[in-house]
């Protein structure tokens, strides 16, 4: 009798186990599965989850939208999407399938088996494997090759959406011209490419990061140029000390910015939102939402591009014409409308006695009409600027080891601001007529 009861109990347990197995198989992949192999696929409701349960990949429908997308989000905060595959080709129905093509590409198929997105791998893979890493990077490689970064056939980190995660690059491959850039969502409910991009502007060996409105290519914010130590217009971001390490790469192959997180319990992301503001979020992994906003770019009115117009300087939200200049439209300035900028009070004409006024701790003007000589001293730069009747101002291009290199501005000076604190900004020398030279300072 006792033996029969045991047999009945075992049979019941077996039926329960089988029932659970069927349910799990029907619903989809195990929540701990981070790898998808050949002949496997993911449908709506199924997900990949990174091994340490940080990131999750699957299909989502944002906000009030009726469209579906393949994306990656934080496991603890599903509403915080950090990457979207089919931004340009949403699925109108919840029937998308992520699988592999015959040549090993990762492909997203719609209800009619049409390809709406593909990884477009550079080589044919015989046994493709895709894995969601704890970094949030979705990587594709051949099963019988190494899984090191160099062996990845494709990775999502090379194709950012609106978010920069630790280990992702933002910049430019100088050999191929390939760009790593952020593109904002169209709206809170629409992850299609929006109105703003965050990219590296590189020309003549000079570079800076900019937030640009796609329609009309108008700038909303710029970091200021790299001066060998930092971007001249960016003070340090107030993030936990020694927790985040910024890494800037500048060589013959690439110019790029990335960051690493030194404390494993912290998560950091930089997101370009749909209104064109780059936001820095830091949170502890134990929390349930990515809501700790640490910094924004632009962070104040002086950070807004060309806030004060030409030949003017912004300080503490107020605009002032540079000495030797006056408002081009005084009536507009009286009502705090500064876009018309400033013009010279007394034109310069390369006459004897002209010189320069020094302004310290300034965000140098935009790189619109400049010349660069990396081997010229500051003294020689001054002499060359005086010889050139079009030269409006000059500064060192590199501040390391006492300063070197010569930057000369040959047109209006755009988007300048003065910082209150030491070690922010740089020294700029602005040309004045002989009668206007004298004591005047913006940064005591």
TrEMBL record:
<feature type="domain" description="Bulb-type lectin">
    <location>
        <begin position="33"/>
        <end position="153"/>
    </location>
</feature>
<feature type="transmembrane region" description="Helical">
    <location>
        <begin position="16"/>
        <end position="38"/>
    </location>
</feature>
<dbReference type="InterPro" id="IPR036426">
    <property type="entry name" value="Bulb-type_lectin_dom_sf"/>
</dbReference>
<protein>
    <recommendedName>
        <fullName>S-locus glycoprotein</fullName>
    </recommendedName>
</protein>
<dbReference type="Pfam" id="PF08276">
    <property type="entry name" value="PAN_2"/>
</dbReference>
<keyword id="KW-0812">Transmembrane</keyword>
<keyword id="KW-0732">Signal</keyword>
<keyword id="KW-0325">Glycoprotein</keyword>
<dbReference type="Pfam" id="PF00954">
    <property type="entry name" value="S_locus_glycop"/>
</dbReference>
<dbReference type="InterPro" id="IPR000858">
    <property type="entry name" value="S_locus_glycoprot_dom"/>
</dbReference>
<keyword id="KW-1015">Disulfide bond</keyword>
<keyword id="KW-0472">Membrane</keyword>
<feature type="domain" description="Apple">
    <location>
        <begin position="350"/>
        <end position="433"/>
    </location>
</feature>
<dbReference type="Pfam" id="PF01453">
    <property type="entry name" value="B_lectin"/>
</dbReference>
<comment type="function">
    <text>Involved in sporophytic self-incompatibility system (the inability of flowering plants to achieve self-fertilization).</text>
</comment>
<dbReference type="InterPro" id="IPR003609">
    <property type="entry name" value="Pan_app"/>
</dbReference>
<keyword id="KW-1133">Transmembrane helix</keyword>
<dbReference type="InterPro" id="IPR035446">
    <property type="entry name" value="SLSG/EP1"/>
</dbReference>
<dbReference type="InterPro" id="IPR001480">
    <property type="entry name" value="Bulb-type_lectin_dom"/>
</dbReference>
